[in-house]
């Protein structure tokens, strides 16, 4: 059965163009993410995310390391955006997220990247760390659709997202790939340097699920719509996994989740003794059991 991404309907109705205009207006006094820095990014002023009007792209390629429903057999068309609206002290991609490694791209150039990834037969377009650059990406999408883009968009996020921005993505994004790090306020402040992380991430994931529902896959097991949550297990239960699982179950008892064991103390993690080691096998198995006992759908890398 042939399935088409929902953004095609928005394009045909003219709504996609209107969304671009609404989002760009918000860049003038930027409130795209929860930081609400109120700088004029159209004049290249920069706030917390250190990003002006143009977007920095670190890399793009058919990614074959994502979860199977995302990568499938031909890879996920991944575009890594530089900088981030969080400052996780243990970030494994700190050269991208903290240091801004990459090259400036216009929406027209990003549209060309997406069309290239479609030509490479990727199953989807995977926006990695998009929360701070949504207007530019929706404009790039509009240009790409005019030129033949017709594969789903994956919104691959740390979940520190603005509800107002997410609502403008309703009908644009078919697959949400959010991450939940922890559900304690002081952990968000200490380890990710953001305020109100637990409440922000909860509201964001509820909104994502409202839009696209539980993960749906085709006859080959490839996702075409829905939410798949990632949760990285951290040492000393800093990841508050039991609370995370209990929350996800309230959103949907059929939620799909990837409990990830690959934590490694990157970047500044050694400045925090509690984060300065790999997790133990029993820590991971305990986290995995929480999800199993809750009856959630487990998805592996």
From TrEMBL:
GO terms for molecular function: catalytic activity; iron-sulfur cluster binding; metal ion binding. It holds the Pfam family Radical_SAM. PANTHER family: FORMATE LYASE ACTIVATING ENZYME, PUTATIVE (AFU_ORTHOLOGUE AFUA_2G15630)-RELATED (PTHR43075:SF1). Residues 79-211 form the Radical SAM core domain. The keyword Iron applies. Binds 1 [4Fe-4S] cluster. The cluster is coordinated with 3 cysteines and an exchangeable S-adenosyl-L-methionine. Its cofactor is [4Fe-4S] cluster. Keywords: Iron, Iron-sulfur, Metal-binding, S-adenosyl-L-methionine. This is Radical SAM domain protein. InterPro entries: Aldolase_TIM, MJ0674-like, Pyrv-formate_lyase-activ_prd, rSAM, rSAM_sf. [4Fe-4S] cluster binds at residues 84, 88, 91.
């Amino acid at each position: 059965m042939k399935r088409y991404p929902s953004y095609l309907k928005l394009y045909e109705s003219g709504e996609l163009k209107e969304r671009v205009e609404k989002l760009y207006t918000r860049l003038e006094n930027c409130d795209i993410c929860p930081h609400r820095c109120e700088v004029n990014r159209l004049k290249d002023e920069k706030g917390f995310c250190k990003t002006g009007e143009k977007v920095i792209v670190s890399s793009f390629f058919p990614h074959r390391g994502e979860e199977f429903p995302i990568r499938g057999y031909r890879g996920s068309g991944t575009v890594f955006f530089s900088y981030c609206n969080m400052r996780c002290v243990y970030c494994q991609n700190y050269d991208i997220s903290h240091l801004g490694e990459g090259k400036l791209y216009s929406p027209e150039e990003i549209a060309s990247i997406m069309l290239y990834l479609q030509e490479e037969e990727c199953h989807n377009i995977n926006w990695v760390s998009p929360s701070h650059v949504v207007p530019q990406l929706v404009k790039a999408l509009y240009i790409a659709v005019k030129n033949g883009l017709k594969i789903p968009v994956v919104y691959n996020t740390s979940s520190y997202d603005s509800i107002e921005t997410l609502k403008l993505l309703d009908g644009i994004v078919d697959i949400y790939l959010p991450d939940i790090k922890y559900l304690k306020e002081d952990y968000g402040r200490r380890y990710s340097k953001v305020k109100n992380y637990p409440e922000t991430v909860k509201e964001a994931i509820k909104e994502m699920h409202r839009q696209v529902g539980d993960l749906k896959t085709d006859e080959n097991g490839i996702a075409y719509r829905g939410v798949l949550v990632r949760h990285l297990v951290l040492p000393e239960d800093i990841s508050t996994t039991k609370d995370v699982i209990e929350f996800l179950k309230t959103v949907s008892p059929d939620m799909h989740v990837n409990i990830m064991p690959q934590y490694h103390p990157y970047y500044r993690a050694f400045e925090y003794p509690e984060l300065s080691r790999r997790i133990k096998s029993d820590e991971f198995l305990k986290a995995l059991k929480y999800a199993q006992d809750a009856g959630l759908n487990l998805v592996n890398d």
